[in-house]
Design brief:
It is built from 14 helices and 18 strands. The chain has about 475 residues and is an alpha/beta fold. The strands form 2 sheets. A 15-stranded mixed sheet has the order 9-10-5-11-4-1-3-2-16-17-18-15-12-14-13, sandwiched between helices. Strands 6-7-8 form a 3-stranded antiparallel sheet, with no helix packed on it. It is globular and about 65 Å long.
């Protein structure tokens, strides 16, 4: 699979890159920034839309804006730089680039479009795929591929499982299905599709690519798909999705156009990158000056709380709790007070050579409706990003726990336009570095740790790797 289309990933939080490396993460989606991704040497790039943290209408609006700008970016680059890089491979794929230097709306052949979302089925589906299909279509099919092997998510017989203590558990039986914004009742993916589309797509009409189908080869079936047919894809191992991706790329070479709604593991298969250049155990070499770092924990899921408890038992860590319940009543005044208090504790810990672990209070709050919950989440995130901006400028590293929190750290706290992904410091946990000309934190290694990934020791393991003294 050396001849591939450019893979463009619209990521609803910044953790979809958790199985790849050496590519660009874009925190903005203006035309010029998108051109950076299109012209980059890597076969894949990510646009971090952060839509999972937003209400449905805003998620749809941002997705439409990205698609609109993406068409313009492809048009401006299409007949020149990008085609000089991909013209040969597209000709081998049987894809004909536009004869002019600009592309008409919808002429996105030579590109694979992925709507990357949560491996536990939380997110704005089908809103985002509907918008992408409207803006960048027509597509012959859209595939749901939620398997994420590094995080213990597999799909068998169209049922999606989370492996809990070695036991595959249907995801509708987990806490994620009870999410107050994105809750659902079905692990059987055709029924999940029917539920989320409110019956617009009937479960019986969903195409099922089972393990036996994938392992035997799916090309013939792929070639028969049309009219944005919905399909769900099994996967128990990376080899399953590698095999499926091979057939997808061949079908694309013969003119089929596909859209993906997926977790991260299908991206590994489509990009087919070599092993990352830096071993995870050696990433401490990026820590600035051997200095202690800072950990920001926003995620409140049970797994994160367990990981936090283990981390706080590590030597040289000091917990700094942010009592977000104080924001509920008198937000503006309490936010300023909390900011002053937290930054004081962070500074004291840092000056003592310790790593402060800043974490939001663990109690799950209840709200009268989804809109109120999202607004409160934005208030909490705003406080956390003020904390990031107020951190000592000489910290050695920054670790962000939680998908939405990580996105906000990159785009708001650090105010980055783009960042280069170095690779994974632990399975499913990405590390990026800030640019050398960053005004406050140049060359700062930043770990992006999803809320629902890793075992109880995972946060502590990453902390230990980053705190390892190098000669």
């Amino acid at each position: 699979m050396t001849n591939k289309s450019k893979i463009i990933v619209l990521d609803d939080d910044p953790t979809g890159s958790q199985t790849v490396h050496s590519c660009l993460l874009l925190m903005r989606w203006d035309v010029e920034t998108l051109r950076l991704g299109l012209q980059d040497d890597s076969p894949i790039f990510f646009v971090l839309t952060n839509t999972r943290s937003l209400p449905p209408e805003k998620a749809a609006s941002i997705t439409k804006e990205v698609c609109h700008n993406l068409k313009q970016a492809i048009s401006r680059v299409g007949g020149r730089q990008i085609n000089s890089k991909f013209k040969i491979q597209n000709s081998k794929l049987g894809v004909s680039p536009s004869s002019s230097s600009s592309l008409q709306a919808g002429e996105t052949e030579g590109f694979l479009i992925v709507s990357r979302s949560d491996s536990t089925l939380r997110g704005h589906y089908p809103i985002e795929t509907d918008v992408i299909a409207s803006e960048l279509g027509p597509f012959d099919a859209h595939f749901l591929v939620p398997a994420f092997f590094e995080g213990g998510r597999i799909t068998r017989d169209s049922v999606h499982y989370l492996i809990v203590d070695g036991v595959p558990t249907p995801v509708h039986e987990t806490e994620f299905a009870r999410d107050s914004v994105f809750g659902y009742h079905h692990s059987y993916l055709p029924k999940y599709v029917e539920e989320k589309t409110q019956g617009r797509i009937n479960a019986e009409s969903v195409q099922r690519f089972l393990l036996a189908d994938i392992r035997a080869g799916s090309l013939e079936r792929l070639m028969q798909l049309s009219h944005n047919q919905c399909a769900v894809v099994d996967g128990e191992t990376q080899a399953d999705l590698n095999r499926f991706a091979q057939d997808v790329l061949v079908a694309a070479s013969q003119g089929k156009r596909f859209l993906f709604r997926s977790a991260a593991s299908i991206l590994t298969a489509l990009a087919a990158l070599p092993p990352q250049p830096i071993d995870p155990e050696n990433m401490s070499q990026y820590v600035r000056g051997g200095q202690p770092g800072v950990v920001i924990v926003g995620s409140h899921v049970k797994k994160t709380t367990q990981q936090l408890e283990v981390l706080l038992q590590q030597e040289e860590t000091i917990g700094v709790e942010v009592d977000v319940t104080r924001l509920a009543d008198n937000g503006a005044n309490e936010s300023a007070t909390l900011l002053t208090e937290v930054l004081h504790h962070v500074r004291v810990a840092h000056d003592a050579g310790k790593t402060p672990v800043v974490y939001t209070s663990r109690k799950e709050l209840t709200f009268k409706d989804v809109k109120t919950r999202l607004e409160f989440g934005a208030k909490v995130s705003g406080l956390l990003m003020d904390i990031v901006r107020g951190l000592p400028s000489d910290i050695g590293f920054l670790m962000s726990k939680g998908g939405i929190t990580s996105n906000d750290v990159l785009s708001n706290g650090l105010a980055l336009t783009s960042a280069r992904l170095l690779g994974q410091i632990l399975a499913g946990c990405s590390m990026v570095t800030t640019p050398s000309d960053h005004p406050q934190f140049p060359n700062l290694p930043v770990v992006l740790f999803p809320g629902n990934v890793g075992d109880a020791d995972a946060l502590a393991i990453i902390y230990q790797r980053l705190s390892r003294k190098t000669g």
